[in-house]
Amino acid sequence: MAPQSRPSTRFRPSDVVDFVIVGSGAAGGIIAKELSTAGHTVVVLEQGPRLSERQFDHDEFGTFMRGHNINDPATQPHTFRPTPQETAQRRQVLVYGRLVGGSNAHFTGNFWRMRPSDFNEASRLGGVPGTGLVDWPLSYEELEPYYTKAEWELGVSGEPGPFDPPRSRPYPMPPLPVKSSGVLLERGARALGLHPQPSQMAINSRTYNGRPACQHCGFCLIFMCEFRAKSTSMAVMLPLAEATGRCEIRPDSYVAQVEVGRDGRATGVTYFDAQKRMQRQRAKAVVLCANGSETPRLLLNSASARFPQGLANSSGVVGKYLMFNTYFEVSAQFEQPLNEYKSVQNTRMVLDFYETDPKRGFYGGGGIDARFGKYPITFALEGLPRNAPTWGEGFARELARQFPRTMAFGCHGTSLPLETNSITLDPALKDAWGLPCIRTTYRDHPDDLKNAAFLGGHATEMAHAAGALAVWAAPVVAQTLAVHLLGTCRMGNDPRTSVVDRYHRAHDVRNLFICDGSSMVTSSRGQPTETISALAFRAGEHIAEFAKRGEI
Amino acid sequence: MAAGAAWAAADLIEIEDALAFASQQTSANLVAQTRALTPAQAEVVSALTSRILPAVDGRPGAREAGALAFIDRALATFNAAQRPLYTQGIADLNRRAQARVTRVTGFAALTSGQQDEVIREIEATPFFQAVRLDTIVGTFALPSWGGNRDYMGWHLLGLEHQMAFQAPFGYYDADANRRN
Fold first, then answer.
1. Fewer CB atoms inside 10 Å of the end CB: C or N, chain B?
2. Whole-prediction pTM value?
3. Considering its fold, how many domains does chain B have in total?
4. What ipTM does this complex have?
């Protein structure tokens, strides 16, 4: 049996631990496990509460409409503007998991590797004018062992598709059972000469390392798994970290600043505890894994006389090049019941349009999966075609008939890195702790929206080819809601144009490391979690080695 | 199969009678227990919920699922800011009902056909949109929020609430999953 989370080790804030890690999600959990198993003492500070599987529920209203387990707009408001010329308005644009386990605890489970082409796309394409598209400072070959490590240590179900990059080991588990949506996607894709393949999911298709197989209850999207069948930091990494006896996960700890000594080295962090009392956790080194919005905010909130632009921001790049990934959905109704409310979100996908093709006339690519996107409330509000009745007997009949017969083709696409798309501090708005709030500036590059429409066109064709009775989609519009928060502390070799080096060490502060979605140089094809996980395994290994060699 | 269909049809009439009775009981109980709405206001909201999402084809609707209980609880707590919208919207509905039918006490006393005519006059208003949203949430949110009694809302969608299912899940994956 895999170890259950059993909090035991406790440090005092005044103890100088080896590492304090801010954030307990995909990256924070993995790095905590890597560093603690390598012999280091670790405190993980998580702003949200610690919940057990017994406290999870299937509460669509609470989760989607009342802010349960996510950043709370009442206490952590943020503002939004499309362009820097506009005044930002209060608006909930960014959504992330606010609990031990982070967004990773409630993620859908999609686990895609990037391809070799993702790492050097800028130089292969000759760049995209007016954007910040650059190559990664590492290659697929360098990251491949850590993709494999992520798949085996966490537990991933899948099988390689025809376009998949080379891999050193097969998937640890076979794919999950196909759903009706997957069969229909296969039918439509094959009719069009495309290449459907099983979805690669961080969800157990059989018992794995003491955790059970998926029970197909159907509540994965923004819900945590009661069975621990989802292979998350919460279910897998944090228990291993705690089992070392060297790692404390400290929930309800909202970090305010990274503190820096007179020598320019990080000395720890200040944070508010559950009673909103200011605490200071001292550490030999600091690792930020707070996601692509909170990590840059924390650096900007840590400005000091020595670092007037914000910590680790001599480049001025902290917070810039924010990328959301486009998501566009095509809905389809079929004659017979699919019962998509059962089992995981998606079981089949098409990656034929992954690569950028200059012949299309725009940058970008992505994947299309067959999925169930709507729980009962959302389905009743927006699950029927636009011409369907919205109240009365016709509405009631259509809901009952179509709920089991509807599926969606989810189109996951690229976002170009733009300097103007950014996380900054709102000049006026403060959160419930008195800290400056996040101000998001974001407008999709026109190519991102063209790519979304392009993928949507292929999804529409697939739906028709699969025999759908009705196919429809909302128009492609600018994105104003994001769960993928990427690129805001990009990695690179040049300290003038990037925040962290190829080992996630801040260029400006020797004992400060940053690893999460903010590290990403490009946006992936819409499913970044496996890349964040692989980066975290790689960062954890290197940071532990630096520590052993006295290089921190 | 024909015999089965006949049986189902016979049963359907009984089910609808039973549902109608249960609906009256549910609605009477809920109206008596409201905290934010007066009993008279609750009658109007209850009638509205049953026109937004009526019981059809032997399936329960929003009234049977107790959407009113959710709406009232929400208005008494986290949705208190919408109480003026509800109060004014309900009064407006009653005025429209009285203008339409002489000596009628209010919207709740109209026939369902007359209620639909009144709703068509106001379906673009913020009040109706709010009641529609709340009716949907009250029918489909977890019962712990006050509505969706015994998961009736989920039943009407054909959603069985179970913590575990086994493949095949639907019509189109039956062959693929039987092969495996």
1. N
2. 0.94
3. 1
4. 0.94
